[in-house]
RNA sequence: CGGAGCGUAGUUCAGUUGGCUAGAACGCUCGCUUUGGGAGCGAGAGGUCGCUAGUUCGAGUCUAGUCGCUCCGACCA
């Protein structure tokens, strides 16, 4: 490709609002342009990278035994109604209507569609298992799309769905996909962690994220120092140590408390005790029926809403309570008690951390009094108990042997066990088993965000001059720069080099512009980030100068000796 | 969805109490010069002032609505 024919060119500066390196560089180098927030054009250079990623994904998926197919972009809304996902999760599905009034969802994922096509066949255990996938447009009506390719409203995802007779058979495919994903991300040049995570709105029992460690990542996860434990923040567990095991249990007392003591910081100052010695109450409300939940937890810990929702079996349904909600149960913000409210329907939840402290402070705070020497189990006890605490950096790992370290990562892919979550909700999602009985499919799904993967590669592979594409996904293998092309002798050599390389099957971007300073051409070349730079100029004589992007040394060699 | 802010040239911005033909810099085009790390000089093109309605003799400027964008939060593969 001649640069003079290429649509899309480099610009010197990023736009003002761009914050992420990948966003800036892909814009400056002419790979992407924004349409509206969260929707992007892929320009020819960007498309080439994208297509290479797609090809790698397809090769590995096909090798894994999965089969590519395609589903419509518009999903009949009835399918989403079958699984209740047209309303769940507080996430509004994008919908469109045709002129006869039929409603369709612009899917953010396609479980229902794949179940729907599969149930059209009278499948038996002999037809199983199988895994089908597509490269499909996905729409997510993000309330706030953040600049850059990392979180967008419209994107292409590789989404795969596998169908099995039972859990045991599924587990083999889950491992197969885990290995396949590992090969895919390794081939595109990414290092990643496989992180057990929360499956939230997808249903199912477990899932893993493929996270590429990065400061700009939105996924937070924990790794133990000894490397034996890894988990997403949403599900991360940790070992609670007893705070004051030596202390004697004292009688509970109501004591005077200065009125200025309201927050945890005030408490710490007033009693000169660490945060872990106080009781903390956090209030949530069921979005659907308005029921109030009060979670009592050790003062130094925070409530993990995901764990709480799971414990209560209310996934995706809890909101933080508002001040009005708290007043509605006869309490007031900042003075929520750990017991009482008998006149109002309130459900109390106790975090396991309450069992690690003797003689708590707090629990029934009034304007001027509070209780001290409160002991869980003796002075109050909640019906529901469990681990609902958020892990924090430095906490002890679950096995007690090591400390947790916090990491941030970009979630480039995920694999989900769906179990019979969808096949139970959707009618006729069954096969005939060897015993002659109809049984629901056992399913898994597996996604890779392709645009996000491309941005992530830039995020982890660049320098202050531009992108450094890994060979496997670079838009071209060679960036041929012709300097001083006004000189016909050099022009001829450059043209011959272009012809030679192209005929050898090398993918070449040829900077054939005249009247451009060498400095500009070098700067553009660094910005675009093609692996090999080949220069033809009056200095290179009968040879060419070659240089690998990201390395310092260059050398002049015969073109015929050049190997990509 | 809650809070805050912004829409004027490709970009970043200026534009007075409402007042003549709406400006600058960078970028872009052309010419000359220069030619191994974004060089210099000169000339030029480029605007429905987001959109709609209103107030006014007169609106980039005031009012209302609307659309879009940014930031913080909530939400979120």
Short recap of the structure:
With 564 residues, the protein is an alpha+beta fold. Helices cover 23% and strands 28% of the residues. The chain is globular, with a radius of gyration of 30 Å.
Mean pLDDT: 91
CATH superfamily of the largest domain: Bira Bifunctional Protein, Domain 2
Low-confidence stretches: none
How big a fraction of the residues is strand? Answer: 25-35%
Regarding CATH, which class of the largest domain?
Alpha Beta
What does this structure look like?
It is a single chain. This protein has 564 residues and is an alpha+beta fold. The chain folds into three domains: 3-236 and 406-458, 2-Layer Sandwich (BirA Bifunctional Protein, domain 2), CATH 3.30.930.10; 253-386, YbaK protein, CATH 3.90.960.10; 476-561, Rossmann fold (3-Layer(aba) Sandwich), CATH 3.40.50. The chain is 23% helix and 28% strand. It contains twelve helices and 31 strands. The strands form eight sheets. Strands 3, 7, 8, 9, 10, 11, 12, 21 and 24 form a nine-stranded mixed sheet that branches. A hairpin with a 2-residue loop joins strand 1 (32-36) and strand 2. Helix 1 packs across helix 10, helix 2 (44-63) runs antiparallel to helix 5 and helix 2 crosses helix 10. The longest helix has 21 residues, at 167-187. The two termini are 17 Å apart. The model has no long low-confidence stretch (mean pLDDT 91). It binds one RNA strand of 77 nucleotides through strand 8, strand 21 and helix 12.
